[in-house]
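Next comes this protein.

***
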Amino acid sequence: MTTSPTPRWDLVDPSRYGARSVQYSRGCPFSCEFCDIIEMFGRVPRVKTTAQVLGELEALRASGPRGSVFFVDDNFIGSRRAVKALLPEITR
């Protein structure tokens, strides 16, 4: 995830979307019987760096009209230590 490029939001017409999204991680440490995430992306959570997430949020802000932003994720709290470091930076 640390090599994932920032999406090119400048290529999107924001007026055509009511919400946009940022992906933070892949993988999940849990074994829920109804979920196939671990089969597709593994049991080890991989996360983007705080700088990457802030850069993507800034790219969304710079791309035009604001709407809802969703964090789409395999398991947002799969790596609690990483999320605890990320959230205070987002609120700043």
